[in-house]
Structures are given as structure tokens and as C-alpha cells.
């Protein structure tokens, strides 16, 4: 058997393969240059065009481009009316931003546990965590696999709650034959370089509600409006009003131009991500030390990340050794995610370990493998070879 690189053997790959990265081509660059030469580099026509393009793609009425995905979550919480004294339920198996946005509004994040099979927030545990203070639910389409939004909407309706989907992983994912984005009150997106399309930094909120749409636009620009229909009075053509405490969360037209061009490639990107995920699934499905991602039958994941679960009871070592061995093979592995409330900041707020046992159990066992459209089949095969090599070495 091949010696592991970590034990002095030869690595499967000569060069390091990251877990995710953008794909920007000359066409994208041309679009950005055109905008740089134009009259508007911010708050111009490219923003509207980008918003309309993403709204049309996801089948949603309104879209508001925002400076990044975290700001999009903050804006959505503001539009939902999340305030001090409120509680908002979310999953711990996510990036900290999904919960931080609740704290930004002075409200309290309440963590509901995940389903051990889908790794998404468990609707049954959402119900258990609802109190008279609950205002909203922020489910995350973890890895790009849609949450069971019909179930969550049912609960929200029963208790009068607002649903904000964190769709940072889920642009292009499908639920019961529809693109995600229009099934709840709002859905947020991120255009960070590791996500499905990129604008460098960037985000968006999708909604079918005119009321949320107006609030989101206000929040993006200091809470200030010039819209005659919204003004409380009108002192003249110069007049504008600050009606809420908003932020400067605007995206530039330079970024929107890149986003528009990237949207033209989204279907190709998705196709490649799905093909590569299938290659991983085929390679790993019969290896008893590994658990491949489960898919709900009526969903089509957008495969933002590929998360393998280790059956630790069948291995001689822990996740850390497997992770470090893969790194030594030059495979850019990662862990998504450390349960949000494990972070020292949340611990200081009083959250205790043991809160969400399924998420904590999963966290000990997961490794994210590289997955991005610019990879080649050869890259995928390198990852497969490295995983097989490491698992073979460490299996009991
Ligand atoms: C990336 C991400 C965000 C934050 O997006 P930014 O654009 O980086 O601010 C929020 N939630 C999840 C689940 C993410 O993966």
C-alpha cells in the first residue's frame, strides 16, 4: 500500500487544490471594464439589471442587491421587524453570519438542532424552540440542499412567524421542481468568490413582498428615501427624508456588471458542480467508513460544498488525522461548520455545549472536499484517490 504523504510518502497531487474558488473569464473582465468607463460606477443601471436578472432566474418578484451576504441577512432581519426582546430560530450548522444578523438587531438567536440525515434544521426542533418571543426563523440551505420549506412555512403560518431563508449556498437549487428563492418571505444570497457566482463581495435579498422590498431598499441606503410616495411631506425638489436608521450597504455597479456576466454562466457552473458531486458519490457510496450526502427526493441540490461524514467507529484515528493526511496529499479540505454557539463570543453570551446534539455529533465527523466548477475531472479523480488512500490506511 502507498505510504501517506504525512508519513513521508509521495502526495497524490503535486500542487495544492483549494476547496473552492471563483471562475472569472475575459468576458467577465470586459463587462467590468465597460462599466468602469461608463457614467455610473455605483447606484447606476447595472444594479437594477443584476437585480432583475437574479429575480427572473429564481422566479421572484423583487431583488435588492446588497454589499455582501451578511449585510443581506441584516437587511432581511430589519425588514422582518426583528427587534430587541425578540427571538429568532436558526441552525448552528452554518456560518456565523446566519446568527450574527439576529444579534445586530438586538434580538436573541435560538438554535434548533439539525436532522441527522439531511444536516438541515429540523422542523420538529423548530417547533420545540418557539416561545411567545419568537419573531422569525432563518433556515439555511446547508451545502445547497434545500430545506423542507413547505414544512417550515406551515410552522411559521401557525405561529405567525416570518421566514428568511439563508440561501448563500443555494443559488440554482430546486425544491419540488422550482428554484429556491420565492417560497418564503425572503431569501438572502452571497456572491463571495467561493459561492455559485461572484461579485468579489456581494449579496442580495429576494422577496415577493412589496412591503419588504421597500424596507430593504431603505435599509441599504441609510434609511433615506426620495420616493414621493414614501415621504411624510415634501418641501421641494431637493427634499429627502431619513425614516429609519439604515446603513450604507450598497453594491457598486462595477460589482453588478461582474454579477450580470457571471449569471450567464450559472447554469454551466451548476451542471459542473452536479457532475462532480455525482463522481464523488459514485466513488464513495460503497466505502463503509464514509457516509455520502443524503438528498431529499424532491430536491435538486446546487452543491455549494461536498461534505463527507466519517464513520469514526470504523477508523483507527479521529477526524483530525484524516484531515491532516488529506492536506498533506495537497487536497484543500475544510470543515463546514463549527457549530455557531461553540465560538467564544457565543459562549460568553451564555450558550452551552450540548444544546444541539445532532449538530455537535456531525461536527466531529465532517470533512468538506474541494468542489468548484473550474476543477477538472482529473482534479476530482485526484481527490477521490487521496480519500481512498487515506481511508484505506486508517481503516480498522
Ligand atoms: C457565505 C455565507 C454567508 C455570508 O455571506 P458574505 O457574502 O460572505 O457576507 C452567510 N451565510 C452562509 C450560510 C454563508 O455560507
Question: What is the secondary structure topology, with strand pairs?
Answer:
Layout: H1 26-36, H2 45-58, E1 62-66, H3 69-79, E2 87-90, H4 97-104, E3 108-111, H5 123-129, E4 134-138, H6 149-159, E5 162-166, E6 174-175, E7 178-179, E8 186-190, E9 203-207, H7 210-220, E10 224-225, E11 241-242, H8 253-263, H9 266-284, E12 290-291, E13 299-300, E14 306-310, H10 319-328, H11 344-348, H12 357-363, E15 366-369, H13 377-394
Parallel strand pairs: 2-3, 2-4, 4-5, 5-8
Antiparallel strand pairs: 1-9, 6-7, 6-13, 8-9, 10-11, 12-14, 14-15
Helix pairs in contact: 1-8, 2-8, 3-4, 3-7, 9-13
Bound molecules: pyridoxal-5'-phosphate.
Pyridoxal-5'-phosphate is lined by residues 68-70, 94-95, 97-98, 140, 166, 168-169, 190, 192, 203.
Structure, briefly:
This protein is α/β, with parallel strands linked by helices. 36% of the residues lie in helices and 14% in strands. It is built from 13 helices and 15 strands.
